[in-house]
Design brief:
heterodimer; A: 115 residues; 7-stranded mixed sheet; B: 112 residues; mainly beta; 6-stranded mixed sheet; 4-stranded antiparallel sheet
Chain lengths: 115, 112
């Protein structure tokens, strides 16, 4: 079945540690996205990538980093510089950003808790 | 900047009653419009989308939405809700080559 997988589902981190969230898609989509979701704030875009080896900052990129070495994979690193990293993180993909059919498909999410 | 507003943070309806969730967006070029649903602790699932043509669109799970250009709105409706419809609903809007903008979400509670 085609889709997006995120791992792990739950992640605990100590303050001062970096942590990497995994996102893989087998939909052959060019574009991939990372969102952060906090209660009552909807989805906020962290980073997005339209093509391999290229990515752009979203609205709240500070304290996060990404890479896009393969079309299928778009890992997100939450660094120690992120002041309030406890949140639900969603990965998504779409055929492309600038195309009409930019419907986004979402993974199941990773809940990150900083202890 | 373009914006999307879902005026209702939380709505409670009785099972079997009709439902309307509101979505308004800031004025711009013809938008691409989406409604997503999210169950607790899960990702988002697409309910329906509008790109062009008939302004009344049908989606999955018995939902429909109507695009009203004059009101910059794309409200989601369902004639009779089921307990399984309890979830959070997000409206999202795209303009041309720009990124999708999501509303803040409406949490739906169903009374038995």
């Amino acid at each position: 079945d085609g889709g997006i997988t995120q791992s792990p589902k739950y992640l605990f981190r100590k303050e001062g540690q970096n942590v990497t969230l995994s996102c893989e898609q087998n939909l052959n989509h060019d574009a991939m996205y990372w969102y952060r979701q906090d209660p009552g704030q909807g989805l906020r875009l962290i980073y997005y990538s339209q093509i391999v080896n290229d990515f752009q900052k979203g609205d709240i990129a500070e304290g996060y980093s990404v890479s896009r070495e393969k079309k299928e994979s778009f890992p997100l690193t939450v660094t120690s510089a992120q002041k309030n990293p406890t949140a639900f993180y969603l990965c998504a993909s779409s055929i492309g950003i600038g195309l009409s059919y930019n419907e986004q498909f979402f993974g199941p999410g990773t809940r990150l808790t900083v202890l | 900047a373009q914006s999307v507003t879902q005026p209702d943070i939380h709505i409670t309806v009785s099972e079997g009653a009709s439902l309307e969730l509101r979505c308004n967006y800031s004025y711009g070029a013809t938008p691409y419009l989406f409604w997503y649903v999210q169950s607790p602790g899960q990702g988002l699932q697409l309910l329906l989308k509008y790109f062009s043509g008939d302004t009344l669109v049908q989606g999955i799970k018995g939902f429909e939405a109507e695009f009203k250009r004059s009101q910059s709105s794309f409200n989601l409706r369902k004639p009779s809700v089921h307990w399984s419809d309890a979830a959070e609903y997000f409206c999202a809007v795209g303009w041309g080559a720009q990124k999708l903008v999501f509303g803040q979400g409406t949490r739906l509670t169903i009374n038995p």
